[in-house]
């Protein structure tokens, strides 16, 4: 028994020492099969990465949307400018038309005023011509007074032509007594009142001075005598 033990020890001592690589081989084999833990952990999205074409399409869509918004804003701005310009144009047209109407009225008023002053200065001459015709008695207008008749006819013709010319320019003469008008304070001036049994109260029966109208307006009221029975 002792001999066997000594013999086994001698055999083990006589074996060559294995190389370090041989002794490490099993360890390397274990390490190679083992799963090495990563030095650091990284987190990734579970969603798939977008493709290059999809990304480009999305970017182009965003650009188009921005372009549409800018274009819409520009159109709205232009619409506001058009509305503003149209309002200014209409206001200018209205102001111009008002100016035209006002200018026409002022021109007409100036013409009427100038004609009114001329007519007021002229009616005195018309009155004198009328008085000259009335001073000649009708019984004197006979063949024996040929010169007087000729003069009277000439004055009458002159008055007729003059009144016709004045009427063309809006100046008219009126005689309330001839027409038998009722007294109107707007166109008549009552100089006196007297009873007339055969006439109605308020009737003009006598004209002391004839009146004149210029374009329908009273230039000078007629001086008249009015009936008053009560």
TrEMBL record:
Highest taxon of source: Eukaryota
Keyword Iron tagged:
no
Keywords assigned by UniProt, alphabetized: Chaperone, Mitochondrion
Q: Where is the signal peptide?
A: none
Q: InterPro entries, from UniProt? A: GrpE (IPR000740), GrpE_CC (IPR013805), GrpE_head (IPR009012)
Spell out the Gene3D superfamilies in the cross-references. 3.90.20.20, Head domain of nucleotide exchange factor GrpE (2.30.22.10)
An example Gene Ontology molecular-function term = adenyl-nucleotide exchange factor activity
From the Swiss-Prot or TrEMBL record, state where the protein is found: Mitochondrion matrix
Q: Which Pfam family, any one, appears in the UniProt record?
A: GrpE
Q: Where is the sequence biased in composition, kind Polar residues?
A: 15-30
What does the entry give for GO biological process? Answer: protein folding; protein import into mitochondrial matrix
The record's Gene Ontology cellular component field reads:
PAM complex, Tim23 associated import motor
Q: Where is this region: Disordered?
A: 1-30, 42-75
Which CDD domains does the annotation name? GrpE
Which residues does UniProt call coiled coil?
none
Compositional bias (Basic and acidic residues) at which positions?
Answer: 49-62
Specify where it is mainly localized: mitochondrion
Q: Member of which family?
A: Belongs to the GrpE family.
Please give the HAMAP family that the UniProt record associates with this protein. GrpE (MF_01151)
Q: What does this protein do?
A: Essential component of the PAM complex, a complex required for the translocation of transit peptide-containing proteins from the inner membrane into the mitochondrial matrix in an ATP-dependent manner.
Name of the protein described by the UniProt record: GrpE protein homolog
Protein's organism? Aaosphaeria arxii CBS 175.79
């Amino acid at each position: 028994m002792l001999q066997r033990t000594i013999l086994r020890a001698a055999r083990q001592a006589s074996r060559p020492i294995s190389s370090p690589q041989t002794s490490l081989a099993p360890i390397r084999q274990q390490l190679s099969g083992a799963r090495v833990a990563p030095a650091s952990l990284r987190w990734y999205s579970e969603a798939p990465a977008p493709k290059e074409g999809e990304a480009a399409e999305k970017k182009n869509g965003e650009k188009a949307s921005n372009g549409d918004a800018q274009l819409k804003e520009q159109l709205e701005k232009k619409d506001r400018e058009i509305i503003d310009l149209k309002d200014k144009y209409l206001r200018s047209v209205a102001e111009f038309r008002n100016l035209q109407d006002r200018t026409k009225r002022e021109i007409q008023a100036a013409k009427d005023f100038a004609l009114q002053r001329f007519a007021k200065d002229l009616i005195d001459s018309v009155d004198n011509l009328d008085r000259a015709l009335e001073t000649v008695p009708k019984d004197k207008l006979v063949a024996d007074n040929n010169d007087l008749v000729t003069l009277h006819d000439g004055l009458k013709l002159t008055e007729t032509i003059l009144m016709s010319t004045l009427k063309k320019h809006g100046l008219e003469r009126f005689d309330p007594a001839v027409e038998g008008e009722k007294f109107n304070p707007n166109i008549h001036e009552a100089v006196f009142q007297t009873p007339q049994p055969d006439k109605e109260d308020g009737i003009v029966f006598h004209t002391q001075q004839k009146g004149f109208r210029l374009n329908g307006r009273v230039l000078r009221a007629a001086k008249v005598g009015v009936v008053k029975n009560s």
